Every structure is written in structure tokens, then in C-alpha cells.
Amino acid sequence: MGNTLINVYVRTGDLVSAYKVFDGMPEKNSVTWACLISGYTQNEMPHNAFAAFGRMVAEGFIPNHYAIGSALRACQRLGAEGLKHGVQIHGFVSKTRYAFDVVVCNVLISMYGSCIEGYEGCNYAWRVFEGIASKNSISWNSIISVYSQRGDVSSVFRLFSCMQKEGIGFGFRPSEYTYGSIITAAAESLSVNHGSLLLKQLLAKIEMSGFAKDLYVGSALVSGFARFGSIDTAKSVFQHMSTRNAVSVNGLMVGLVKLKRGVEAVEVFLETKDLVRLNFDTYVVLLSAFGEFSCVEDGNRKGKEVHGYLIRTGITGSRIAVGNSLINMYAKCGSIENACSVFNSMTDKDSVSWSSMISTLDQNDCFEEALSIFHTMKTTGLIPSNFTLISTLSSCTSLGWIKMGEQIHCEAVKLGLNRDVSVSNTLLCLYADTGCISKCKKVFSFMQEHDRVSWNSIIRAFSDSEASITESTNYFIEMMRAGWSPNNVTFINILAAAAAFSRIELAHQLHALVLKYDLMDDTTIRNSLLTCYGKCGEMDACETIFSSMSERDDVSWNSMISGYIHNEQLAEAMNLVWLMLHNGQRLDCFTFATVLSACASVATLEHGMEVHACATRACLVSDVVIGSALIDMYAKCGRIDYASRFFKSMPLRNVYSWNSMICGYARHGDGQRALEIFKQMKLENQPPDHVTFVGVLSACSHVGLVTQGYDHFESMTKVYNLTPRIEHFSCMVDLLGRAGEFDKLENFINRMPIKPNVLIWRTVLGACGRVNGRVLDIGKRAAEMIMELEPQNAVNYVLVANMYASGGKWEGVAEARKAMKVAAVKKEAGCSWVTMKDGIHIFVSGDTSHPDMDAIYEKVAELHLKMKAKGYVPQIRFALYDLEMENKEEVLSYHSERLAVAFVLMRESELPIRIMKNLRVCGDCHSAFKYISGIVGRQIVLRDSNRFHHFVDGKCSCNDYW
């Protein structure tokens, strides 16, 4: 009667009452003790079970196999902590008649498997298993389960085979638990292809054995097939199961979510929610399914509905995992506010909660907020995980916050998480993107193991400068020697480096390796090859690759167009644009911006306007990127009025829009308007960047605003926290040089925090070349420095010669020309062009190849006489040859821009004359164009390599300050 009462109380979980009955029993036997010990074990009170077992032995009772089994199961529940008690019980049992009892030994196998990690646990379990004289199916299931838990698939199948052979003689066969253990081992440990094939073979055996519809086996099969992506087989097993549970439902849903089939996962939930008792894990999976909806709005809406249900049932507040899933669901659906709301409402948070919130903010460009959450997390005492550090380091990378990134790096070292490959990979990205290449190299060298991402990251880090591209190539070779095959990312990174620095030999080698690794069908790699060959000037190779592509994306077309533009084949680029339109290919913003940039570079206004019309028809003209490109195009094509009109009509402007307008006005010599736009930019709270100040300082330089120029230069650091770059120092040198402030100029250069480069000395020479009658010491110094730094650039010799010519020092001009010959450097020919209805007409200084050249020369002579009659005096100092006066005048008369203007004037028209030149206009031609504009009564717009000049009625827009 007492034993029965104890069992009743045990089943209801009332161990206090059970013990009272036990304690009040005048007589107890082994069964009584076994009931109490079993009760403690079943109700998760293992320490009480050990105490009861010890007291039973101490009071002289001999434990039966039920008492021993219950005590051993208590050890099993405690894991490693229970091993000590388990060994003691095993020692006691070995002295009794139960030493080889199959029931006790079966529990001992499971106990050692659970209490000792790794293969040592297998060894102890195996010794017990070998000692069983008459093994039963539970013995085999127990030992198979031990090896299954460790993912030892080969041992599991070896034991399974032995079990089948031995079972024939002893009358037992594999049970549902056997198959469950085998399926679990296969699902946890094997590769996708191997695991899926093995499960299909097992499925055939299971169907023959009649266990296919078993709940335990069926659930394991569904989860296994779903894990390996064999979702159709998983669904088939699921549909044929006679009963289903939460495990099978969750397994199928997880598989569908992994394959981005969130809608189907939700359908499984809806079909089973009223038939199966679902658990919390089901809702976790369901919420993740909403994040995989192709329509984000639908996922967000349905996710909110489930969220409401979870709030009403009280599940949200009671389970951290559900709260974490809600955060991830809202993050994937793009609802950051809801994700933050869930996070803030959670009374309990674990490290996953914090990591999920930080990751959500990082992935949605809320970098500063992510780092703020990270700092708050540290105050809670929770230890950041590797996932936490990855997201915070990613935010530091995006913000360029290297100091904070270094602090998090130190924290990773303290926590030992720097040994995590993913954390180290994120550190590589941080240091690479912030230019800390030496630290990037150090992180890589300290990594205990590298994966493909590590190699790709270090290769990319050393691909950003020409000096280190060799090191990047060496890492690429090391990667292959280490046994890692390069993937598309590897090739894209190193092809980008080859493209950036025009390494054609490297491009050919990489192309050969792409073919070797059979990656040529990858569109991203083909696009990278197109870009690389285009940058290296091999458009024939580009055309071959492009024509062989069965599938082309926007990047493919854009790469070809960019290649043509880079190689100055604008006609081919425009033909490809028209082909895209003819084929119904929708041009994206990048395509339009690229083509507009090309039109701007060669100043083909007509083509630019055609592209503008196409963008309007495509409803893309309101895009801020295209709008900025249009402003830049019109400004560079001489229509600053069109650029201004379009700028004013833009509904939305970004920093590029403002920069295009400021630089446009500066280039046209209208410094005051450029500064007005800058003032308006500040009023509209648009932060300026480095390019903005290049435009602002150029504007000050072109109109001689020295004081304002200094003020704007100093505001970069004091107001906007922008460190001036070499181009800003060059603008200041130009400003002082144009103003004739050479003492201040020299002092400014001497105080520069960075070493003056070729750009600075070239600017100095340009300024000295505008000084008549003398050669300055700073000019001589600049000449020496520029020849030392860049002896192979013809422009430098021309600038030196100009400086000496302006000072009348013809021996200096002769020396510069002699040095040029010794260095085997050729000066780029002066070239001007005009766009007419019948095409583009190009003229070179002294050229006689144009079919109308005789008439052009006659027109030049006619204009020369008319100019002289108006008071024109040739400025022979701009003739770099020490010739007779008449010969110098003749050389100046046949400069390319003079030939171009004469050609246009031969044709009847009242339209403004637009001439483009590849070099800077000389002072004599500038003077001549003022006279010509007054003589012919037409506006002449001349764009040289430096700026625009608008000549009207004998005056120039630059007011001779150029």
C-alpha cells in the first residue's frame, strides 16, 4: 500500500508527500527505496536520488536493478557533474550480481556517454557494452546513440550492421530508436550530397521495416531531409506520417525557411496549428519565415499579426527566444522601429538579444546607434559573443572609426574571440578599409587558421595601391598553395587591382586561371574581365568576351560602355547605348551617369542632350545621381546656363549636385556665383566634402579673393573637421600665384604639413609663367623639383620652357627643350575641336591635313590683319622658339584654337562658337580671341584644360585674371 502511494505522489510531482509516506512506513523493502529514488530522478532532483541511494545501501538494503538504473539516470541528467557519483555506483554494482545485468549495463552505457565528453565517453561506454553477455536491442540502441551524439557516422553504421547480423540469432531487430539515432548522426555530421543520399537509402530500409509512419522516426527523417535541402522528400515523409508532433512541423518549416520559401513554411503552420500541440520553437521558426517573404510588406503585416497573438497569450514576455526572433523578423522586413520597440520591451535579454539588435542596426546603416547599444550591453555584465563583435566592428568600418575598432579588437583579444575566424575576418576588413594595411597584415599573420574569406580580405587589402599590388599577387599564390581554390570574389578583387593600375600581363594570367578553374560562366567574373581589359586598353578582348556572353546584366553593358569611354571611343559607346535601347534593355542610373560623364569629358553637347532626353523618357531624370551628372555635363560642355537651370529644378540635391554646380561656376570663371552656391549649400544644411572645397578654393583663385580663400581653407579643419589634401594646398598655391603674392606663396609651401608633390610645383611653374620679364627664384626651385620628381612627363618641360620664355630667357628655353630630347619625352600636341552638324572637326597646331586647310589659313591671315588694325600686338614670349619676330608671329597664328575659330567663321551662322582644347590656352591666343569676338560680333566659348573663357565684344569672362 505504501509503495503504491509513493508512486501516486511521484506521478503528480509531489515529492514532499511521497517522502512523508516513505518516512512513515514501519517496514521498507528494496522496491520502496527504488520507488523513491526513481521519483527523485523523474522530477529532476538528482542529488536527492544520490542521497537516497547512499542511505539505502548504508541501511543494509540491496538495491535492485530498478534502483540502480534510477540512480544512474540521475547521474546522466547532471552530465559531467554526475560522473563522480556514476563511477561510485558502478564500483558498487561490480561487486553485486547486477555487474553484468543487461538492464543495468544499458543504463551504464548511456550514463558514460552523457557524463564524459568526446571519445573518452565512447571508450567507457564500449567497455561496458563489450561486457554484456546477452545484448538486447536496448543495448545496441544505447551504444549507437552514444556514437551518434558525437557525430561518428562510420561507427554508427558499423554498429548498425553488427546489430542487424546479431539480431537474427537473438530474435531482435533495429527499432524506431535505432533508426532515430542513425538519422540524427547522418543529419548532424555529413555533407549535403552524402547525407541526402544516405538518408534516402535509410528511408528504403525504414519503409521495409514499417517504421516510416512512426512519430519518432518520421520526425527525424523530416528534419534530416529538410536540413540537407531535400525539401520535397521531407514533405513527402511528413504527409505520410500517421501522427505529427512539434518536432516534425518545426523541422519542415526550418527547411523551407532555409530555402527562402517563407510562404510555404507559414502554410505548414496554418495546416497543423489546430492538429498538433506546437511549442515555443514553432513560433520562433514561424517568425523567421515572415522575414523570407518575397514581398516585405506582406511579411511585415503577417509578422505583426502573430506578434499580436503572442502578446495576448503572454508568450512574448516569458520567452527570450521569441523576443529575439521578433527582432530578427522585423529587421528582415525593414521595420527597424518595431525591432527597437520589441527589444526595449523585453524584461530579460540574453547575449543573443543584444547581438540581434546590434546586427539589425548595423545592417540598416544605423552604425552609431549600433555602437551605442554595444556600450549599453557592456554595462549589463553580459559577455559579448563573436556575433556581437562582428556587428560592432562592421559599424566601426562603415563609420571609419578606427580608434573604436582598435578598442573592440583589444576586447576580442581579452575574451579570446580574436581566434574566431569570422571575428578576424571582420578585423581584416576594418583595417583594410581604413588604410591600416600593416595592422591588417599583422591580424592575418596571427590567425591560427584562414578560410577563403580571410584570403580574399587580405588580397583586397593589398589591391588598393600600385605599390602593394605585388604583395596582393603573392597572397593570391599563397592562397592556392595552401589548398584554397580561388572563387569569384578572389578573382574580382585581384582583377580590380589589375584594372586600377593597367597591369595587362596580370590580367592575361588571371584570365587563364579563370578558365582553368571553370569560372568563366560566372557573370560577375566576366564583368570584372570586361572592366579590367577596358582599363588596360584591350577593347578587342572586351568585345570578344561581351559577344560570347549568353546572359548580360546592367554591369556587363556598363563595363563595355565605360571601356569605350576610357579608351576615347565615344562613338562606339554611344552606339552601344542606342543598341541597349533598341534591344529593350533598361538603362540604369549608372549607365546614364557614365555616358553623361563621357559627353562631358569630350564636350559633346549634342550627345549629352540626347542622353538627357533618354533619361527623361525613362523617368530617371529626377534621380539625384543622374541630375548631378547632367549638371556636370552641361557645365563642362559650356552651357553653364543649362546647368544652373537644371540645378534649380532638382527636387532633391546631394553633395554631388552642389559640388557639380560650384565647380561648374568656378570652371567658367564665375567665382562669385560659385561662392553664392556654397553659401546656399550651408544654409540648406548640406555638409561640404573635400571636393566642395576644391571648387570653392578654385573659385577664389579665379577671381583673386585671397582673404576669402584663406578663410575657407582654414574652415576645413576648424569648422568641418576635414583634413586638407594635396589638391587643396595646390589651390591655395594657385590663388597666391595668380595674385602675385610670391613671398606668401613660398612661405605657404614651406609650412605645408605634407611634402609638396608634382602638382604643387607644377602650379608654381604655371604662376611663374605669368610673370613678365623675369624668372623668380621660386620658379627655378620648382623647375629643379619637378624634373627630379617626374622627369618623364612632357608637361613639366613645357611649363619650365614657358617660365623662361615669359622672362625672355631663351637659353633656359633651349635647355628645357634639350633636356626633353635627352629624356626622350615628346610633348603632347596642342589639339582643338569643334562639333558641327557634319561631325567633330579636329585641329592640331600647324596642321595642314584638313580638306579645307587652304581656306582656313586664308581666314587666319584675314583675321590677323583685322586684329592688327584694331591694335592687336602679338605676345611673342608665348612662342617657345628663339625665332625672328615674323616667324614667332606666324607660329602663334597657327595654334590649334586659331585654326578652329577660323574654320567655324567660314560657315554662315549667328550661334555662339564653342571650341574645346586639350591644353591650356596661351596668353597670345587669349588676347587674339578677345579681338576676334569684337570683330565678328559673336560669342566665343573656349574650354581649355583648365577652365572656360567666354569672349564677348572684346572682353573675356575671366577679366584677364586666369
UniProtKB/TrEMBL annotation:
**Which NCBIfam families did the record assign?**
PPR (TIGR00756)
Q: Where is the DYW domain?
A: 871-962
Q: Which superkingdom is the protein from?
A: Eukaryota
What this protein is called in its record is DYW domain-containing protein
- Start and end residues of the PPR repeats are 29-63, 136-170, 350-384, 451-486, 553-587, 654-688
GO terms in the biological process aspect are: RNA modification
Q: Give the organism's phylogenetic lineage.
A: Eukaryota, Viridiplantae, Streptophyta, Embryophyta, Tracheophyta
This protein's record includes keyword Repeat = yes
